[in-house]
Design brief:
The chain is mainly beta. The chain has a domain of 230 residues: Single-stranded right-handed beta-helix, Pectin lyase-like (Pectate Lyase C-like, 3 Solenoid), CATH 2.160.20.10. Helix content is 15%, strand content 40%. The protein has a 22-stranded parallel sheet that branches. Strands 5-10-13-16 form a four-stranded parallel sheet. The longest helix is centred in the N-terminal third of the chain and has 26 residues. The radius of gyration is 22 Å and the shape is globular. This is Probable polygalacturonase. InterPro entries: GH28_Enzymes, Glyco_hydro_28, Pectin_lyas_fold, Pectin_lyase_fold/virulence. One of its GO terms (molecular function) is polygalacturonase activity. It comes from Ananas comosus.
Length: 494
């Protein structure tokens, strides 16, 4: 374990430095601005349709991101980038105009440098929204511009309040082949007005999300910075073949429910190379809420998370649940770095959820300053209404954690299953957690079963050590991740 500790400590100083820079931006009330020189704006834009914006060499790796047949610039529709003028009509007109090219090679809307204030708007199929460096799309703080929409069927109500919900800022509904990318432009939800209303119990409806992609297929979100979301940041729901790559998400660490990336009843989702500072979970995998999720019956599956960096002092680096009533399975997470976060991996569920969480594989985590390294909660009590089924018990099985190093930890693990419904098949191997006070309780385990191999401090009796010759916990390896990637790229058409 010595070499693992040395290797895992190396990135921590860099992360701490970045954390200081980011928090200083929030505390000073300003923006973290990029001072690179902006090239002059032209109607011809290089690399504007790229799915990852990383240049031609990496485009070949990510396959299929050549140019769209048609392009337009936001200013073609009368937009003014002064941060004050409303551009809601311009965004709406631009997308409507470019939608006519869905079956004619697709289209891209280029957002040039400037501060572009707008109300919520929708995307279209075979479409790229490209933010140039220095482009900032600002969400309107005029709540009258945010219409109400129906709750998601797998939730049955708004997440904050019963009934409908406010529109999301950017929505894609029933789309094929949609890309949000750029040269690290910014989408700013200006969420403080929403956070204040939430804290003061002044909301009339549930807050909208910064980006929600619904019933859609073949989606890329890359090389964009998302800041100050009213609530969740990126929410692909009832969707498939989704790539989130090279993005930054920033929210004040005390902002309510500003989850980073939440795949929800979605399949073949690949999250990679992203940095998240959040007031809630950095990544939360979901699949519906109690009886509504059970009835909708769409699981989240084949989710890959790679090279994620997270700061979330009050929540998890990676969470599953608590809304998991449609089931979650076949999740791989690897090469994860976190500092100052509540827990490394948390599974949240409870009586009434039903569903399942199984075949979860997490390896190579480097964690600095954590309350718990691993946390499983079987007593999560929030329900959408009084009609949930108390006999609907979740199945939690096949949970595998390996190659984890954590320092400055309060407790190694808090693993709490459900009486009469234990969490089974837990495997933890090659894990070192350096606890702050070794004299205090280091493991708290109830209603679980599993095993451990080469774990320090010594796990609870419900996770007996298998000895020095035992085989490490399983991990699917590259064949599984490649199959998810290939499924996306082999079917991609632009």
């Amino acid at each position: 374990m010595g070499s693992l500790q040395i290797n895992r400590r190396l990135p921590v100083l860099e992360i701490i430095t970045l954390w200081i820079v980011i928090t200083s931006c929030f505390f000073e009330g300003g923006e973290c601005k990029n001072h690179h020189h902006h090239r002059r704006h032209h109607h011809h834009h290089q690399n504007w349709a790229g799915g990852n914006g990383r240049g031609h060499e990496e485009e070949a790796v990510y396959g299929p991101v050549g140019s769209r047949a048609h392009t337009a610039v936001l200013t073609d529709f009368g937009a003014v980038g002064d941060g004050v003028t409303s551009n809601t009509a311009a965004f709406t007109a631009a997308v409507a105009h470019l939608a006519q090219y869905e079956l004619d090679g697709g289209a891209a809307l280029v957002v040039p440098p400037g501060r572009w204030l707008t109300g919520p708007f929708n995307l279209t199929s075979h479409f790229t929204l490209f933010l140039e460096r220095g482009a900032i799309i600002l969400a309107s703080q005029n709540i009258s511009e945010w219409p109400t929409i129906d709750p998601l069927p797998s939730y049955g109500r708004g997440r904050d309040l019963p009934g409908p919900r406010y529109s999301n800022f950017i929505t894609g509904y029933n789309l094929t082949d949609v890309i949000i990318t750029g040269n690290n432009g910014t989408i700013d939800g200006q969420g403080k007005i929403w956070w204040d209303k939430f804290h003061n119990d002044e909301l009339n409806y549930t807050r909208g999300y910064l980006v929600e992609i619904i019933y859609s297929d073949h989606v890329v979100i890359s090389n964009v910075t998302f800041v100050n979301s009213p609530s969740w940041n990126i929410h692909p729901v009832y969707s498939s073949n989704v790539i989130v790559s090279g993005i930054t998400i920033l929210a004040p660490i005390d902002s309510p429910n500003t989850d980073g990336i939440n795949p929800d009843s979605s399949s073949d989702v690949h999250i990679e190379d992203s940095f998240i500072v959040s007031g809630d979970d950095c990544v939360a995998i979901k699949s519906g809420w109690d009886e509504y999720g059970i009835a909708f019956n769409r699981s989240s599956e084949r989710i890959i998370i790679q090279r994620l960096t997270c700061i979330s002092p009050t929540s998890a680096v990676i969470a599953i649940g608590s809304e998991m009533s449609g089931g979650v399975r076949d999740v791989i997470a690897e090469d994860i770095t976190a500092i100052n976060s509540e827990s490394g991996v948390r599974i949240k569920t409870g009586v009434g959820r039903g569903g399942f969480v199984k075949d979860i594989f997490v390896r190579r985590m480097s964690l600095h300053t954590m309350k718990w390294v691993f946390w499983m909660t079987g007593n999560y009590g929030q329900h959408p209404d009084e009609h949930y089924d108390p006999n609907a018990l979740p199945e939690i099985s096949g949970i595998n954690y390996l190659d984890v190093y954590a320092e400055n930890v309060t407790m190694a693990a808090r693993l709490e299953g459900i009486k009469g419904d234990p969490f089974t098949g837990i495997c933890i191997s090659n894990v070192t957690a350096e606890v702050i006070d070794p004299k205090k309780l280091q493991w708290n385990c109830t209603n679980i079963s599993g095993k451990s191999i080469h774990v320090s401090p010594t796990p609870c009796a419900l996770l007996p050590d298998q000895g020095s010759n035992a085989t490490q916990c399983p991990f699917p390896g590259d064949k599984f991740t490649d199959s998810v990637k290939n499924k996306y790229y082999s079917t991609r058409r632009i």
